[in-house]
Amino acid sequence: MERAVWAPPGIDTSVAGVARMYDYYAGGSHNFAADRDAARRALGFLPGLPKSVQADRAFMRRAVTWAAGRGVTRFIDIGCGMVSYGNVHEVARAADPACRIVHLDHDPVAVAHVRAVAGDDPGIAVAVADLRRPRQLLDGPEVAELLEAASPVALLLLGVLPFVEDAEDPYGAVRELGEALPPESLIVITHAAYDGVPVSQEQTEGALGVYRDIRSPLTLRSQEQIARFFEGYEMVEPGLVSTPHWRPDTPAEQEDPYAFSSYAGVGRKA
C-alpha cells in the first residue's frame, strides 16, 4: 500500500480524502492513488475543477491581504486543507509579518502536512478540529489563545461549508463561531453553487456522486442560501458575488467559465 513520509501512522491510504483531492486539482503532489482516482472521476464530469480551485485561491489571497491591510492580524483558517504553497499564513505574513494564524482541519493528513510546512513558527498553530463541532473547536487551546486578545479576527471558511450537510446544521455552527468573535472581526466565505457551473445540473450531479461515493457528500447551495451565513454581519463591498468579481486584480471577464462556480464574500461584525 502506498505510504508517504508525511502521512500520519494509521491513515488508510486506500480511501480518498477531500483535502488530498483538492491538492491534486491544485497541481500538488501530496495525494495518494485513491485520491487521484476519485479526482479524475470528478474531472470526467467537471473538467474545469482546477480553474475553480485557482479562482478560490486567488480570492483568498485578495481577501487575506485586504484584511491584513486594515489591521486584522489574527486569522482562523477552518478547513485549511493541504495546499503546499500560497497558504493563508504565507499570504498574511507577506502583508504583515505580525500576523498570527491558526490552521484547522478535521483530516489528520492535512494537519500533519500543514504542520510540516509551518515548521516551528510560534505565530502559526495547527490542530485537528471539525467545523461541525463549534464548541469543541472554540475550546481548543489554539483558538482560545488567539481569541483571548479580544482584537479583531478573520474567520476563514474557504470551500469548507459545502461539506457540511443541512442536517448537520451548518448555519448554527457558523452562528456559534461568529458569536465568539470580537467586535470588528471578519467572516470570509467561499461556497460552491449550481448557479455558475457551466454544464448541466445532471453533469454536475455526476461529480457530486463521486464525493458521495467517498463518504464526503458535497452540498451546493444557492446565492440566497449562502447569504444566510452572513446574517448579523455588515457585508463588505461588493457583497456576496461570484468569486472572480470580489475586488478583482484583473478584469473578471478574462476568467475561465468554471471560475464563476462559487460565491465569495466578506462580512464585518459590529
CATH superfamily label: Vaccinia Virus protein VP39
CATH architecture: 3-Layer(aba) Sandwich
Number of domains: 1
Return Rg in Å: 17 Å
Number of strands: 8
Helix content: 25-40%
Written account of the structure:
With 270 residues, this protein is an alpha/beta fold. It has a single domain, classed as Vaccinia Virus protein VP39 (Rossmann fold), CATH 3.40.50.150. The protein is built from 10 helices and 8 strands. Strands 1, 2, 3, 4, 5, 6, 7 and 8 form an 8-stranded mixed β-sheet that branches. α5 (108-118) links the parallel β2 and β3. α1 packs across α2 and α3 (49-69) packs parallel to α4. The radius of gyration is 17 Å and the shape is globular.
Mind sketching the topology for me?
Layout: H1 18-25, H2 33-45, H3 49-69, E1 74-78, H4 88-95, E2 100-105, H5 108-118, E3 124-128, H6 134-139, H7 141-148, E4 154-158, H8 170-179, E5 186-192, H9 201-213, H10 223-227, E6 233-235, E7 241-242, E8 262-269
Parallel strand pairs: 1-2, 1-4, 2-3, 4-5
Antiparallel strand pairs: 5-8, 6-8, 7-8
Using brief descriptors, characterize the structure shown.
270 residues; alpha/beta; Rossmann fold; 8-stranded mixed beta sheet; 10 helices; 8 strands
In short:
This protein is of the alpha/beta class and 270 residues long.
